[in-house]
Task: inverse folding
């Protein structure tokens, strides 16, 4: 399998269960962090039905509210200002940067070894390295939805999450949330942080 993030937001019946909901949220976060969303995705999030309660649901509601008045071009401008920029980006979205202080370092090499063990590789069409937050969310989505009993097992999911997401992704979210230029993506980061904290608690109890 090759890794390639998608901007597709798929809505299905709520009886698909918790695992499907987790996969859908990882898929959405992968798309939002991989690139700025199109207007139809913003509109879809804005009109997605609210359900449940708690901090994760509140974060979803806040993102949906932000999408109601969001203009795709303004969101694109914000994405490019925060994550692309001229020269060094304002905010890095790569695990190696947060774990080692530099890009393309040992954490990326270790990740690539683990991806090989999972029979995964980066798609040639994807310009970002494998330690980009979007790629890591896409791997988690794959593990949850995989037909392979080993890959979709909680042990495999927990190992990948605790090694490649948990140590740094929360810090990245904090950086985004506190950046003065982050408006739409502050809400994306808040949703991501709350979701990752729920995932951490769930894996700890597993």
Result:
């Amino acid at each position: 399998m090759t890794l390639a993030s998608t901007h597709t937001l798929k809505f299905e019946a709520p009886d698909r269960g918790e695992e499907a909901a987790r996969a859908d949220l990882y898929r959405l976060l992968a798309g939002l962090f991989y690139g700025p969303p199109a207007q139809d995705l913003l509109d879809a999030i804005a009109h997605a039905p609210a359900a449940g309660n708690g901090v994760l649901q509140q974060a979803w509601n806040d993102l949906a509210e932000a999408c109601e008045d969001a203009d795709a071009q303004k969101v694109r401008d914000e994405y490019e200002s925060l994550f692309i920029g001229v020269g060094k980006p304002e905010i890095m979205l790569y695990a190696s940067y947060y774990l080692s202080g530099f890009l393309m370092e040992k954490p990326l090499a270790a990740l690539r070894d683990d991806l090989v063990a999972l029979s995964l590789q980066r798609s040639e069409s994807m310009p970002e390295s494998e330690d980009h937050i979007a790629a890591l969310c896409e791997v988690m989505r794959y593990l949850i939805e995989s037909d392979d009993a080993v890959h979709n097992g909680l042990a495999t999911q927990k190992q990948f999450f605790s090694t490649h997401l948990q140590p740094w992704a929360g810090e990245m979210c904090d950086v985004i949330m506190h950046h003065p230029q982050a408006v739409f993506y502050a809400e994306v980061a808040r949703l991501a942080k709350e979701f990752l904290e729920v995932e951490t608690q769930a894996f700890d109890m597993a």
Q: What stands out?
A: The longest strand covers residues 2-3. DSSP finds ten helices and two strands in the chain. The first helix runs from residue 18 to 34. The domain at 14-205 is CATH 1.10.3480.10 (TorD-like).
